[in-house]
Specification:
Two copies of one chain form a homodimer. By secondary structure, chain A is α/β, with parallel strands linked by helices. In chain A, the strands form two sheets. Chain A has a seven-stranded mixed sheet with strand order 5-6-4-3-7-8-9, with helices on both faces. Chain A has a two-stranded antiparallel ribbon with strand order 1-2. Chain A has eight helices and nine strands. In chain A, 35% of the residues are buried. The longest helix of chain A has 16 residues. In chain A, a hairpin with a 5-residue loop joins strand 5 and strand 6. Chains A and B meet through helix 1, helix 5 and helix 8 of A and helix 1, helix 5 and helix 8 of B. The structure holds a DNA duplex.
Chain lengths: 223, 223
DNA sequence: TAGATTGTTAATCGATTAACAATC
DNA sequence: TAGATTGTTAATCGATTAACAATC
């Protein structure tokens, strides 16, 4: 990718090395593992133990955890509570991003109803859907509004993040609307690649890609 | 020493070099892109064009496509129809894996109702759910059966693949059931790591990991 | 042919793994 | 202290990118 706009170069100064994406993906796994350890009689855990339980190498665990800024004690390991907090802080889970959800079909409702997201740094404030029958309130009291309310809501709440759970045919149109309203990041569950302005981030959740990996894994053992 | 000059047009999985996972993840993206090209007047496309539209490098596209066994024509590119077929063959999309879905909540229903999976090599034959109110037939006529029917169904239909869309608390128990019935691969949407016997493959769909990546991308530009 | 594009081999880059020093 | 574990620097490995030959 070419370097084009230089006006935001103020934030460029290398305050910290960029975190490898594989590390970012593992951090929530560590967190979930640590949370489920339950009340053990030890308050500390070694990366050898973590690695063994998660089928990773101790060195990798150590490097990953170091990214969050945690400091362990030789011979003891890491304080479990401090480690949980360090991961949460690092991933910004204590300051969730507010987001608007587009689409209240089955997938949209699953995303809207899942309360766990708030623990993972995401707060879906409402959903919009063009289908009048779907409008109203979800069982968890979150509002499902007409699509026309989206622009006003985004501007009024200064929303920067949108979650797309719309049909393939509506995805690009929805992305255009988001960009026009000032949305800066889109979490896209629609099974299609969307085009956005260069200052908008897109994270594409591609189940077909996951299936491809899974299928090949199956083929490798079965064949 | 390089061997395997065996030029088999139909790429069989299992033998030869393992395909890099990033390549596997991109292949469905190429397919989706090619499918949406629509009826152009040209039947061939170059990897330069593909790369430009998908924001990749031409060399990477060429390498990825080569994995499927497709052969292009210098100066012309790849025949679009042949390329689509080559990707489909390589990923096994013409012989879908039959799967049983566990859980008919919002997410489960989204997965059960999504007809596109059959094009991606997955055929969800039915769902099971312990909730009597959910049992019956989905709008697309797929059956939602009592949980107790799972074992019999798996054995009778020789199912090898299970899709888990159950609550966190039920995930491990469900995985145990699957393993006991002879399931060989689990696509896990529950937000928890599950333990399975060594001969069972697990693909974990971890939204928290995706969110972590997305949050950091946002933070990098916004901060 | 000339030129564009593919296919392949080599170089680079980044993530993982190894080696080892620091430390409680 | 002795020993286990962390933290850091070096080596390895795999994926991406570059260079270039083959070919239509």
């Amino acid at each position: 990718l070419e370097v084009n706009v230089e006006n935001s170069s103020s934030a460029k100064s290398g305050d910290s090395a960029p975190i490898p994406e594989p590390t970012l993906r593992r951090l929530p796994v560590y967190h979930q593992y640590l949370k489920n350890l339950g009340p053990t009689k030890y308050s500390a855990i070694s990366c050898t133990q973590i690695a063994q339980d998660l089928r990773l190498t101790p060195i990798q665990v150590r490097k990953d955890l170091a990214c969050t800024g945690i400091v362990g004690k030789p011979k003891t390991g890491y304080d479990v509570g401090a480690l949980l907090g360090s991961i949460e802080d690092f991933l910004g889970w204590n300051n969730p991003n507010e987001a608007l959800l587009f689409g209240a079909g089955h997938l949209g409702m699953a995303l809207l109803m899942y309360e766990g997201f708030r623990n993972y740094g995401l707060d879906i404030v409402a959903a919009v859907d063009p289908d009048h029958q779907k409008q109203g309130s979800a069982p968890n009291d979150k509002k499902i509004l007409p699509l026309e309310k989206a622009a006003g809501l985004i501007r009024r709440m200064h929303l920067k993040l949108a979650v797309l759970a719309v049909p393939e045919a509506a995805a690009q149109k929805t992305a255009d609307l988001c960009a026009a309203c000032g949305i800066k990041a889109i979490w896209n569950f629609a099974p299609v690649k969307i085009s956005v302005p260069p200052d908008v981030i897109v994270q594409h959740e591609n189940l077909a890609s996951s299936l491809a990996v899974l299928s090949k894994k199956i083929g490798r053992t079965a064949a």
